[in-house]
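Lecture 7 notes: from sequence to structure.
We start with the chain below.
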Amino acid sequence: ALAIAAALPVAAQADATISGSVTTKYKNDGVMDTDARLSIASSEVLANGMTATASMNIVAADAVTGDQGKASLAGDFGTLTIGSIDSDGAFQAGDVGAVVGDTMTASSAGTTVSGVHYAGDLAGLTVAAQVNASTTAATTTGETKGSQLSATYDFNGLNVGYAYASADADSDAAITGGVNEAQSAFGVSYSFGDLVVTAGKQ
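Predicted structure tokens for the same chain:
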């Protein structure tokens, strides 16, 4: 995030927001248990009209590895995010028929990966693509690496979508549901006021 920020032509120095908490508990066995969380976030509108944002979360707690960070650049071209991303974000964007479960709800811990995500739209066509580098979820099968892509198009209220993933969105073999290896989905949805009709196939 710092390398990207240093290379961009910023109009002015961005302000950073810092927040966090420290919790200390004295247990009956005489042990002091301390958890600390720190979050740093910054956003700046650049001279060329694009917006750059960066955030970092640091967690120091028992049995928790929650350190995450990401940087994004948004403009007329869309939004490019590097760092901590939703493990099935690009796939779910194209699953308009809702036929594939969200991997984030398949695991009680959720699934976040390090990777690169892009989303953009032009004249009703919306595309998303991402590359997952590695998973931070508990796993016995090693890192999950793969790519995802999706496209949706709005025909005056009729939304058509397609999504594909080359690898599991979660490498934990115990997780069922969610996005799996070589999975694709096609679907349509249409809104009649408050009534939304969807159909799809995976």
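Points to note: The longest strand covers residues 32-45. The helical segments are 2-7, 89-94, 103-106.
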